[in-house]
Amino acid sequence: MNYRALLLAGTGGGLIALLWPRDSVAPGTRRSPSRLSTSAAGIDFILEEEGFSATPYKDDDASTPGRVEYAIGHGHQILPGENLTRVSRDQARAIFQKDLARFEDMVRTNAQVDLTQNEFDALVAWSYNVGNRPKSTLYRKLNAGDYGGAADEFAVWRMAGGRVHPVLAARRAKEAALFRT
Fold first, then answer.
1. CB neighbours (10 Å) of residue 64?
2. CA-to-CA distance for 37 and 105, rounded, in angstroms?
3. Which of 37, 110, 117, 160 could disulfide-link 134, Cβ–Cβ 3.0 to 4.6 Å?
4. Is 50 a residue of the active site?
5. Are both 82 and 153 inside the same structural domain?
6. Is the domain of 92 the same as that of 164?
């Protein structure tokens, strides 16, 4: 394979070489969201955070108070008319891939600035969990070019049932850390 290289001078006089395939971009390079898709690491991140359930479970961090929502598989919100009472891991993965495409499209539509791969992955993971939030302060800061301020906004989305949910707080911290790397 043909590789690109970036040589960096170390403090001790040594050199460090970063290599990546020629047909890709250097790590940390910002590109138009329209040119990005969730990376394998981003997919693994979402799957790990969502977990797996073969049967429906009550989504206790549902976005609408008083509304009972159920999820299955890897966090798929069961929609009206869907008769999902049990799924295999393969079925859950197929559903996940369809859901993922929808959330990637949300990020591509909502983000009006260039993103690194990790920023894109973090936004997709966040959207997968909280839904489409185009008017959120996170996107307002991001689209104003305030990447650091946008990263800080992940922590705001840690509430469920009117109180801080420890699992959501931990997830938001991980998403913010991914966004910043």
1. 8
2. 9
3. 110
4. yes
5. yes
6. yes
Which spans in 19-146 are helix H? 40-50, 89-110, 117-130, 137-143
pLDDT in tens, 12-41: 556 555 555 544 668 789 999 999 999 999
Domains of the chain: total? 2
Decide the pairing of beta strands 70-73 and 53-58: antiparallel
Given 48, 50, 153, 175, which residue is catalytic? 50
Q: Model's pTM, two decimal places?
A: 0.83
Side chain identity, residue 149: G
Token pair 């938001």 in the structure block, residue: 172
Can you give the pLDDT at residue 86? 97
**Domain identity same for 6 and 84:** no
CATH code, domain with 67: 1.10.530.40
Same domain, 3 and 62: no
HSE-up of 89 (CA within 13 Å, CB side)? Answer: 3
Domain that holds residue 64: 31-180
Is 84 strand, coil or helix? coil
